[in-house]
Amino acid sequence: MKHALSHQQLGRGSLRPTPPDGPAPSGPDDGTSRPTRFVGWLGGFGCAAAGYAVFQFLFEVLPDSVDGEAAKYLIASVSGLGTALAAWLAAALLRARAAATAPRPLPRPGTGTTAPTGSQGPGPLPQLFAATCDTLVGEVSVVDDPERGRLVGWAHSLGESTPSRPTSVGTAYGLQTMLDLGTTDGRLFTGELADTLWRLRLPDGGWSARSQGARARPEVTALVLGALARAGASRDGRLAREVDLCTAAFTHEADPAGRESTHVLTTVLRGLLRAAPDCGALPVLREALVDGAVSDPHRDHLRCWGYRLNQPPEHPSPVHTAQAVLALDRAARVLGESPAVRAAREDGVRWLLSCPDAAHHDCRDLENGRDEVRRPRPDDPARHEVLNVRHFTASWIVRALLCRGSLEVARQDGLEETWRELLDGAAARVRAGQQDGIWTWAQSENTELRRPMWMTYQGVSALRAHAVWTYRPDEAAAAR
Known about the structure:
The chain contains 18 helices and eleven strands. 51% of the residues lie in helices and 9% in strands. The protein is mainly alpha-helical.
């Protein structure tokens, strides 16, 4: 399977800079060959003039031994036409060469276009990240709430038609995006964003999505706790109490729907690994995730995951398998790993590497997905609260393949080239989904394009991880 995208196709280009003085000026001593200068001089007279000159010259010098006046005209005419055609082709070639080597203007910042190879300006990724930061700063919402105080953050999506108000989910993803961007210009203070998350905490503890009402949900609570931990919150005190509340509410008895959902379980696992790596619930959650894998008969009976744990193997899911691989890899670094857990994680990696499509930047394994989590409503158990979950699949595939354990599996199996091809294809798909540094989710039921904060965070996170992996300072130095 040979379908790797080149570095130029992915927008990376050459790392070797052009000389600071730019290209050498053209002139008599610019190294141009004599035949090239002759053709340029000849073309200056025009193709027709060059052809006529050759015709006139041959007609005058051809010897009288050539059969008749008509023969002289024929030979001279054919030679003249041939010369005119050759001059035209040579001039076209020179123009094409000049166009190819002429310096091209740098793209405007934030356009998402690729900078030309060898340019001295910033590459496309810094431009993309700068555009992301500018948009998030420009669309941050500041609200003075009479009960909760000053709120600084984002709604679930950018550009919502209703007046935006910071939410737990939007602000948590926005905070993590700003941390990934590493912004230091002071236009947004991460401390204010963290304070806002604490102010959005529900009265009885924990956090919930806007559509989930006033009852805390483990997946949102773990998301917020992970963001607060990344922002520097102390593990003692408030953070530790919220971790205890989260784990107490995430049991089979208290939340059976959540414990059966691969998305919910992996979200809680990743959040707690950041906020409370010594939490006693982590090994239990990891075992539940491993036990929920299924064997896929269509891919050498490798274990993978569906949108629900222990889902029948007829419905394997690339995005949920990637989420499980990522969570298990992070857990291995914090908790260590038993042979059984390692075998499940490595099967998941091999399942991702066994994608049957040839063009991985546009294959079925990268199609975005949806699922839902249905829970009984606290106020009316006969009715259900429905959490619609959408998945930016390509970004999950990139992050799962970039796990240290994934590369180790690829090397052990002699599949490093396949791993590289699949990774580059998924990264190209991620980058193609943004405009001015913001990712959009196309809704099939109407023409509206929504810009969820979680999707921009996942896009930025995936491209940043891919860029770190592709950084080759030694190779760049050797090329100079």
